[in-house]
Amino acid sequence: MQVFREIAALRAFLNPVRVTKTIGLVPTMGALHQGHLALIAESKKTNDLTVATIFVNPTQFNNAEDLEKYPRTFEEDCRKLEASGCEVLFFPSVKEMYPIPSSLTMNFGSLNEVLEGKFRPGHFSGVGLVVSKLFHIVQPTRAYFGQKDFQQFMVIKKLVEELCLPVELMRVPTLREPDGLAMSSRNLRLNTNERQRAAILYQALQEARRQVKQQVPWKKIVDQISEMVSRSDIRLEYLALADTENLEATENVTDVRPKVLLIAAYVGDVRLIDNVLLDEN
Question: Which residues are catalytic?
Answer without folding.
Answer: 36
